[in-house]
Amino acid sequence: MGAAGMATAAGNAVLVYLVLSGRLCGDAAGDGRREDQLISSAVSAAAEAARRRKEEARERRRRRKEQARERAGRPWPERAPDGWGEAAAVAARTVRFTWAETLGKWALGEVAFGIKYYMRQQGNLQHEYAGNDSVLLDGPEVRQELISLLGYLKLCMYFSKKPYKVFLEFGGYDQNDVLIKKSKARLLKPAFTVVRDRSSKCFLLFIRGAISVKERLTAATGAEVPFHHVLVQEGHVYNVVLGYAHCGMVAAARWIAKRAIPCLSKAVEQFPNYEVKIIGHSMGAGIATILTYILRENEKLSSSTCIAFGPAACMTWDLAESGKDFVTTIVNRNDVVPSLGIASAAKLRTEVMASSWAHDLRKQIQQTRFLGFVNRSVSFIRSHVPFVSDPRSKVVDVDMLQSQTSEAGSKSSADTHAVVKKRPGLVCWSCVAAQKQTIESSKQTQDLENQIDTTVKTVKVTDEAAAELVAINLHELNLQESDEDDAGREEKESALKETDEEEAMELLETLTDEKQELSPSTSAQEPQQLYPPGRILHMVGLQAAAEATTSEQGAQEEVLALYETPRHLYSKIRLARSMIREHYMPKYIKTMEQLIEKLPEEDIDDQLDSL
């Protein structure tokens, strides 16, 4: 009985052990399934949240697109604003437009290094203005014309830079000779004056250039607006020239015309032998040319002429050609303003981006001991400190200066588990967003990184690699999975993959939309190529043939000449170190005085006859 009791007790103990062990295993399996269910629900919730965020982002982009189309489709003002509210609205729109066409398109590297490199690469291009299509002007008649133009330029400079009283004293005018005086400029309302010049028997209308902030905003309102010129002969319309012109200058010219036409009409009736001349420099010259087109449509002022010194490119080809008989444009050497416009700036940016300025900059950095040390240090820090690799960081190196380029193809990381967080779709973004990303630049970046003492392990993550790493981590956690769990895991991985691809495509769409919103003018229509108007006289400085062989010894002397140049030469921006400095009026005056000294006072035939 004792042995039988012991056997029964042992059997019961075995049964209890088996039951309890089975329950424990069942509980463990149940816990694993519950954990999988929690993971599945978390993934589903994350996917649903990502889908909602994506829809919200698409809705925001759609609204921004509609707003951008509305702004682009809204016509620019064709007249000066009446009140401060309208002026503030125009100023705000001008600032947005200027930002979109300048810093919104040009990257920091292109402005700081690309333009300088391209300028050095193309060299001095003044000889292009003295080509076969240009006509050399020489002789005493040209000299007398230059003397007359120089006098008008000095008067224009005194009106723009000096107090009005000094201007009157320099020109020999008194208060009775002043017909209109508007010395204070407003937005789209430039400063101008009308005086009677008794020595030349002319009514001179001077328009000041962009000196104050409000005048510069007028010049910055550079959108193209429709403009036409009606050609009148003997009181009959015989032709209409259609085209586009600079918005701010058109509005300013119409504002001046509204105030000047009644006064000039009365003055011409009182002094019928007097002529009307409109004179300006820079922005004032562009306004003066458009104003001349407007005044000539008036029967009493149909003989008005214009003298424009360094005018901005302000009208399309047909309009500019139609003013050859009454507009004289003078350009000084490398002055960039007559060629500066939205279309020409876009061409220049394309040429700068096509140049190898980044490669040249890397060579300069490597050859300079200090800059090379700084660049290697920055690269080392970016490769080891994760947050420094963020493009929003304030620490930048050569690669971050390139236009619209992200990191070069592969990311440096010391931790492979950190790489799992990187979205593989971002590799596609960097390839698409970079307008110019060459294999050579990535190789050179790797060469710079190889110079660092610490070896940096570069890992390129794909969807398969991410899935493998996830699987490895799951095995390390000793999670037992059944066939159903394998199927669920595959669904999760495919869902993650689709989410990554969708986020990458969403990022691509966002970047594309932002790029289009930065330049609303291109979404509506292509920018018109604008030109300087009328007959163009270009003062060109050519290198002397004798000095060409001694170019290494110092600065070369220039031989000045005056050419009548074709208009198509001003569709391209030619960079030079002095392209801004030579736009100012003192430089114009100095060049014209040198030309006047060079040109002969009499013809050679007249000199021989006198002998």
Automatic annotation (TrEMBL):
Query: Signal sequence: where?
Result: 1-21
Could you tell me which species this protein originates from?
Panicum virgatum (Blackwell switchgrass)
Pfam family for this entry, one = Lipase_3
Q: Which CDD domains match?
A: Lipase_3
Keyword Signal found = yes
Domain of life the protein comes from? Eukaryota
What InterPro entries does this protein map onto?
AB_hydrolase_fold (IPR029058), Fungal_lipase-type (IPR002921), Mono/diacylglycerol_lipase_N (IPR005592)
Every Mono-/di-acylglycerol lipase N-terminal domain range: 80-142
* GO terms (BP aspect): lipid catabolic process
The record's listing under SUPFAM superfamilies reads: alpha/beta-Hydrolases
Q: Which UniProt keywords apply?
A: Signal
Protein name in UniProt: Fungal lipase-like domain-containing protein
Q: Provide ranges: composition bias, Basic and acidic residues.
A: 50-59, 67-80, 489-498
Region (Disordered) spans which residues?
50-80, 478-503
